[in-house]
Specification:
Elements (H helix, E strand, L loop, with lengths): L1 H16 L15 E8 L11 H10 L1 E5 L16 H9 L5 E4 L3 H7 L9 H7 L1 H9 L1 H7 L9 E4 L6 E6 H6 L8 H13 L11 E3 L5 H4 L19 E3 L2 E3 L5 H15 L14 H7 L3 E7 H11 L8 E4 L22 E4 L6 H10 L3 H9 L6 E4 L2 E4 L1 H5 L4 H7 L9 E2 L3 H4 L4 H11 L15 H27 L4 H15 L1 H16 L3
Parallel strand pairs: 1-2, 1-3, 4-14, 6-9
Antiparallel strand pairs: 3-11, 4-11, 5-9, 5-10, 7-8, 12-13
Helix pairs in contact: 11-20, 13-19, 20-21, 20-22
The structure holds calcium ion (CA).
């Protein structure tokens, strides 16, 4: 009797005192804790509690997210950044424990300091070791996340991988015309001229479209070949940083020189005559009709045409080439993946469980959480091979786009704060994309990005008052010059004077005051 009692006591003691078993080390709370969430994104308008990724996160952490999204039917416009659903949520007076959205940054940086969201800095320092380590390794990202009051109010979706867009050209056309892959702007121009005149598609018609682009700003991108700039980030027409100062690319000398030459290229028929109007289907159309010669577009999707058109068009080879050297000999690739997005999630000020919530945010930065956010659930979308997640053959070959499949299970959500793992994408990038990326890896073409600023209220007022009309004016002149209405060289001094009249200097002043505060003098 006594023996048995002792044994039971020992057993019970062992169970209580033992380290939590392997399956439990990510548990945040002993009993399930429900936290409410608002989640808005064009691809997944609300948080689905049935997502396998949510179910797995529940099992591992004991935190259960419950969907309380309002305005799920309102589109979040990726272009102008309108966040109507978030405004509706704010107007309703009830902010769920967690708010995740695309384009969240400006919203929380405005309403956080006003008291609607919790500052995360201390919570991270005290309760989120994985996040803390992440930011200690990346101080520039931490600075970029700060609101004007110095606090961080959201955890972003952090893309991984360096490369986005690249220069592409028809290698088979170059071969047919006896040309080498262009190494500088002059050779690029000669190749485009040869495409225009040499009938490389062999149909006897002068129907080739030498340079085209799905997004017309990818024409403006070419000003980099004359040492101009078109943007400082992955957002078109953005400010950029030059020697510690924020500037706008469309007021620079290299830009003027670039636009002058692009207007000439346009006039000479080296640029798609419909560049400003053909729109997003232009790549699909011009490549599949065997008409398009060169573009600047995403590695993965553009490389894909080698597979889809390789059988239909004899010899078709539309492959990446290294950025041609500019007039001063610089090779730059202006576009790259930005390391931090304005999308992510935040903790509302009314949340009764801020510590558990920041621990939950931290979970997604653990090895297991990051894998779940990137690859889905083990045994469903992937299996572990040699200690690394590998998508199953069935998952990769069922004909559905990998990204869409992952959104459907609650993985790769941009409205969740998580660190992407490029490996997830490499596993379904085709051989041509990987070959192009390897080519770009041989050089050092990427340049630093402008990660944005957070204005205080006074700065915001100046920006809002002047910037929209200045931007409209810049774009209107830009297009007119390319199309041949007006002459950029003759108009330049008047153009700069008009920018000054319209308040560009005031805008640059607030950009720079915010920049200095945020990044400490650059
Ligand atoms: Ca032809």
């Amino acid at each position: 009797m006594r023996y048995l009692t002792l044994t039971s006591t020992l057993l019970a003691g062992t169970m209580l005192g033992a380290p939590v078993s392997a399956g439990d080390h990510l548990k945040i709370v002993d009993e399930p804790l429900e936290l409410s969430i608002q989640m808005n994104h064009a691809r997944y308008p609300r948080y689905e509690e049935s997502w396998p990724v949510e179910q797995e996160a529940r099992r591992l952490t004991n935190i259960h997210l419950k969907d309380f999204t309002v305005g799920a039917n309102l589109r979040v416009d990726e272009n102008d950044g309108r966040t109507e659903a978030l405004n509706l949520m704010l107007a309703s007076g009830k902010i769920p424990d967690i708010v995740g959205s695309s384009r969240l940054k400006d919203f929380v940086n405005q309403y956080g300091p006003e008291g609607a969201f919790l500052p995360l800095n201390d919570l991270i320092d005290e309760h989120a070791p994985n996040l803390k380590a992440f930011f200690e390794e990346r101080p520039a990202i931490k600075s970029a996340l700060s609101a004007a009051d110095g606090n961080m109010y959201y955890l972003p979706y952090l893309p991984d991988g360096k490369y986005g867009r690249a220069y592409f050209i028809r290698y088979d056309w170059l071969d047919a015309l006896g040309l080498n892959v262009p190494q500088n702007v002059e050779e690029f121009e000669q190749a485009l001229i040869a495409f225009r005149d040499g009938d490389p598609n062999g149909n006897g018609l002068k129907d080739e479209v030498p340079y085209f682009a799905r997004q017309w700003p990818e024409l403006i991108r070419l000003v980099t070949l004359w040492d101009g700039r078109s943007s400082g980030s992955d957002t078109y027409h953005d400010f950029y940083v030059d020697e510690g100062k924020v500037k706008h690319p469309y007021a620079g000398e290299g830009y003027r020189e670039g636009i002058k030459n692009l207007a000439r290229w346009y006039k000479e028929g080296l640029i798609d005559a419909e560049i400003f109007t053909r729109g997003s289907s232009s790549r699909e159309y011009l490549l599949s009709e065997n008409l398009g010669g060169a573009t600047h577009d995403w590695f993965a999707s553009t490389s894909g045409y080698n597979t889809s058109l390789g059988d239909r068009i004899d010899g078709f080879a539309f492959k990446a080439f290294t950025p041609p050297a500019s007039i001063s000999g610089k090779r730059i690739e202006e576009h790259r993946r930005i390391p931090i997005k304005p999308d992510g999630w935040a903790i509302s000020a009314t949340n009764k469980h801020p510590v558990e919530t920041i621990k939950y945010f931290d979970f997604w930065f653990t090895e297991e959480g990051r894998r779940l956010a990137n690859f889905g659930v083990e045994g469903q979308q992937y299996t572990m091979v040699d200690g690394k997640p590998k998508f199953t053959e069935e998952f990769l070959t069922n004909g559905k786009p990998v990204n869409n499949q992952l959104y459907e299970i609650g993985s790769q959500l941009h409205a969740r704060g998580f660190h992407q793992d490029y490996e997830y994408e490499r596993q379904w990038s085709n051989e041509f994309a990987l070959e192009g990326i390897a080519l770009y890896d041989e050089g050092d073409y990427l340049i630093d990005q402008f990660l944005g600023v957070a204005f205080n209220a006074d700065e915001q007022r100046v920006y809002d008052r002047y910037w929209p009309s200045i931007r409209d004016f810049m774009l209107e002149r830009q297009q007119a010059w390319v199309l041949g209405t007006g002459d950029v060289e003759a108009d330049w001094d008047d153009y700069l004077a008009e920018l000054d009249n319209m308040g560009l200097n005031q805008v640059l002043k607030v950009m720079n005051s915010a920049y200095q505060r945020q990044y400490g003098g650059g």
